[in-house]
Every structure is written in C-alpha cells, then in structure tokens.
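User: For documentation purposes, I need each entry recorded in a consistent format: the amino acid sequence on its own, followed directly by the corresponding structure tokens. There are two entries in this batch. Please keep commentary to a minimum and don't merge the entries.

Assistant: Recorded as requested. Entry 1:
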Amino acid sequence: MQRQLKLFAGSSHPSLAQAVARHLDTTLGRMHVIRYSNENIKVKIDENVRGYDAFVMQTSCPPVSDGLMELLITIDALRHASANRITAVLPYYPYVRSDKKDEPRISITARLVADILQTAGADRVLTMDLHSPQIQGFFRIPVDHISATSVLCDHFSRIKGDDWVLVAPDAGEAKDAGRYAKQLDIPLAIIDKRRYGDDENAHAVHVIGEVEGRHALIVDDEVATAGTLVETARILTEHGVKSVRAGIVHPVLSGPAAQRIKESELKELVVTDSIPIPPEKLSPKIRVLSVDSLLAEAIQRIHDGRSISAMFL
C-alpha cells in the first residue's frame, strides 16, 4: 500500500504552494507558525502525519534566515510526528551563492545549510536551478535538481524570430545558456565580464559572437541587484542589437534592482515565481511565469518513485 502524500507550506510563498497543491489535486497540510515576542518560532502540525510522505515547501526570500529556521523547525516537527519520509522543497535554495571558499576564513554556507537540513530530519531535497549544480554534492541524502528552462523557453519560442541571438552574461554561464540556445534553435553569444574586488556587479568588456542587427535574449539563473544585467543590456545596445530581453529563473531583485530595470535598455524581463516579488518591485517590463506545474510534477514523481530526469528528456 502506497504512503499518502501531504504537502505543507512555510510562510515564504503561500500562493505558489497553494497552486502546487491544486495541481496535485490536494489541499495544503494544516499547520500554524507562532512567532513569540522574543522572536522565537514555534511550528505545530495540526493533523496526523504518521506514516505519510511529507513535502515541505519553503523558498528563500526575505527574511531569509527566519524562513530557513522556520523550515528546519517544521521538518523537525514532522519527524517527531512520525512522518515516514520528509522532502524539503526549495524552489530557491538558501545561501546558494555561498558555495565555495573564495576568501580566507569564511563559511561555505550553502554546505552548512545542507548539513543542518539533514540534521533537522530531511530525507531528501527537491530544488530548482542551483547557481552551482555541484551543491548537490554537499548532501548525503538524495537531491532532485530540476530546471525551469522549459518554462522560459516555451514563452520565448512563441515570440522569437530568425534574427534572435541567445546571450550568456559571462563565460561561466555559457554551458547553461547553450541549453536555452539549443532548445530555442538560435545562435549563442557570450559577454566577457570582469569583477573587481568586492564589487557586486561584474563589468562587461567584450561581446563574443554576432549580435548586431539581432534581437538579444539574456539568460541567467538569478537576478539580484540587476547591475550586471543592466550593464549587459547596455553593452549589447552599444553593439547594435535591435532589442534586449532577459529570461531569468530566480527574481531576487535586491537593493536598487527594480529601479535599475525600469530605467534600463531592457524591453522585457521574464522571470518565474520561484520567489515572490513584492508589488512595489513589479513594473510593466517584468513578466512572471509560474513553475507550479513543474514543481507539482516533480513532487508527484518523487512520491510515486518515478524518474525525475525523464521530465527533461
């Protein structure tokens, strides 16, 4: 007899969790979170989960550390309530950019997050478009890593023409960008960038490939302050492109990002709802596509014991 599936949602992105639940033809598991005056968090599971296959959805968005702590407490509560298996569903992985020791005396925090998720009681992890796919190697439990490439490509395939070019924002993104270029059947160009010291924004130096007279599409896994994105759009415009669009999975949109995008050369920024975007950061240039069906299918396949990789064949 197959275990029953229960989907629970943290407080980070309830609308996405509800949409995923609808695709799974279920309702969200009942739980509530209490934040005390001393800033401690209490999570109570309000229904029986003994023997269930439990999935907990929590994306990484402000307040990031509070959301992570809430997730850990929820996993621990489910473990002590005798859930049979617990899967942490992380559309955007916490501290994903802290994936290497590139300075002395710092933490590789993405690895630390992996450690504490396992310590809390997670049996497996489902996540999407990691900044560095090798983060999967930080875990000693199964990690299913899915991609929203198809969601973005479906949108752009309906509007692209023969004069489009796919642009990787730096050489390190060329391999991932190549997947988009292949799926959209358009040529690939690469921006040569330089990053100086602790400057958050890399600076475009050269364009490798033919872009003049074409419509440019920039792809990347995330947009944070948008400095690099806006700089890339500017240099492409200087190199004679007809227009610049961007397709980016995770809309972090921190600091001055929203204003920079409004004032930029970008015609359109297409993102997913892996992270909720506050209304004040939205603009007519930003289009949001949902990954609800993608996450729901992955969850159903994990529950049924079917292949995740078959989703992307």
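Entry 2:
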Amino acid sequence: MENKGLSSPVNQAKKSKISLYYGTAVICAVLVFASGWAFGSGKVSLDGVRRGTVSTTSNLDFTGVKEVDALLRQNFDGTIDDQKVQDGMKSGVAKAAGDPYTEFFNAEDSKAFAEELNGSFEGIGAELGKEESNIVIISPIAGSPAEKAGLQPRDILVQIDGESASDITISEAVKRIRGKAGTEVKLTLARDGQKVEVTIVRAQISVPSVKWEIKNGIGILTISRFSEDTENLATQAATEFKQAAVTGVVLDMRNNPGGLLESAVKVSSLWLDNGKTVLLEKQGGKVIKTYKASGTPILKGIKTSVLINDGSASASEITAGALRDNGVATLIGTTSYGKGSVQQILELISGGTLKVTIARWFTPNNKNIDKEGIAPDKEVKITAEDIKNKLDPQLDAALGSLK
C-alpha cells in the first residue's frame, strides 16, 4: 500500500494528526503512503506533524561515523554528495529501531508522502508494506493500473525492473516503482510459491476516499482510505441513506490500507453514541489516550454489515473493531491485515521528516490486532474464478445478511 490525509508536512508544523495507514507506501505510483500510498503501505497511523527543539539522553559515540566519513572522502574514487551523506545517516538511525513503520523521509520523500495522503499522484496505485525482509503488496487501489494488472494483497515483490527488491525499505521500493505517467515499470512477484511478472504503465492517479450508492433499499458505503475528505463525504452519504430510509448499510473497507486516525474515529461516530469508545492508545502497556465517538450518530440503529479482507489495515481495522466491539455491525469477508501501531510524523529542524511508531492501539474490548488481524464474524472468500467472472460473493453475502 495511503489517501489522503496528511497535508504537506512543511505546512502542517502546527497541526497534529494521527494517520493509520497500514504501511507506508503506496507505490506511487502511488507511493504507498511512502510510507505512503503507499496507501502502499501503512498509512500509517500517524500522530501528526510536529516540530520543536531536540533534547536527548543518548550516549552514542559518533567518532566512528566521523572516521568513516573522513576515510571515505580521502580514499573514494568519485564524488561525495554531502546531502546524501546526511540523509543516509538519518535513515540509518531510523532503520536501527528495527520497526518497519519507523523511517526517515528526505525533502523529496516527504513531499511525495504528503501528496499520496491527499490522494493524487503519479504511479501504479498500490500500497506497499514490509514483512521481515520482504516488500509486500498490501492492496491495489480500486481502478488503478496496479489493480488492472492483477496485483493482489500479500504478493511479495521480488524484483523491480530486473533489480532485486530484497531487504530494501518501503521508501526505496516506492522510489524505484513510481515515475512519470505513461512510463512502464516491470515487477516480478512471488504469489503462492509461483513467479508472476507484470509490466504496468504508470498513470496520474486521483482517488476520492469515499463513494456510495443505494441498491434495493440498502446503502453501500465504500471507503478506500481515511483522509481529510473522508469525514465529510461519509457524513454526506450517511445523510442520504437516512433520508432514503435505507433498511441496511454495507460499509465496504476491503483493500483499505488506512489513513488518518481522526477520520476513522469520525466515521465510527456515524454509528456510535457520543462517549462510546472507538479505540485505546497504549504506550508501554499503559493506556495514554482513549478515543471516543462524537457528533451525530446518523446511522444509529440501522443494521450494518462491514466488509474486510487481508488488504484492510490500520484505520480500517480500527473502524471495523470499534463497530463490532460496540455491537452495531457484523463483519464479513476474510481476516484483516493486522497493523496495530500508531505513527507520528515529526518535521526535522535539520531537514526532512521522521515517521516514528509512538504507540499501539487496541479495540474497545482491549484487543491489539498487530500481526493477527481481525477475523470476520462470517468468513466469505473470493476465488480467482470469481474475479475472472466478475463475481463478488462477499458483497452478495453482506447484502443478503441485511434483507
């Protein structure tokens, strides 16, 4: 894996937000929420953009780093780019945390990440994540070149344009995959033990986070990511559903990699009374913040089914967990991805931004789904044959449950 939700880090220095994109990086071609749209990977759960003075209790000795830099400059047969050296050191420090969602973005990466969060970029439209040393596809964006090329959740990225993608960061993968609209990128994937090669033509991608329709008296609300426009669009849809006196609602969050935490809380509030718990945020095992529903529960009392799959991550998992734990919805589909951490974007005085994991989130029933996901109340799978024949047994099951 995006959407999108965090405006430009540079312009958001005074604005704190939490985004929950699964990962971080939508392939830009979507970058994935470069984490990004990467929507390509998580979006992350981002606790906003902040900037301030730096204090540390670290006793690190930088003598060795200075020695390497000096010897490199004395002996390297080539030109040393000072900015790349600076960025490389920052990236190395972030990578040393050993957390796939903690990483340094230089100015270029920060800009791409912000663009992806806002849902407009050039790329292939797939979100990326990382499992151990592998870059994986979290989900392709609906209608994107990635989806049309047949990319699927859990595909492992083996090569990009013939070069190995093993043990690289999500941001590195994003840089290599994204590019100008109209150009091609060749991906080699591992899927169920088989080698799959696809050539994808990059495109300009602009994706609204919400779409809806009313079908046979049932409202179908599809949220592809949680971004800044999600709350207003979802509220508009809910109002139309209410006015049309729908008998049920399907909330489709399949292949939704996440996004802004605030948006997930507001969407959940369309069903939940004020004060109902949406999620718990913990640090070191202790609750540091409880997010509660607020606003008008327009859809309260309307029978609801929520669709999830293994491409549903982070903010979408928060919403699914909140609605089920509060007893207002039934989950249908397959087990979600399993991203239970929250990230914050920090603007660096020295340049660039740092996306860092700051907490873990838990459902209202105090369950952390990290690496486990949320199992549906009713499991319904989609086969390759279903896809080929353009059938959607999961949606059919959700609609059927509301009749």
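Summary note for entry 2:
Residues 82-95 form the longest helix (14 residues).
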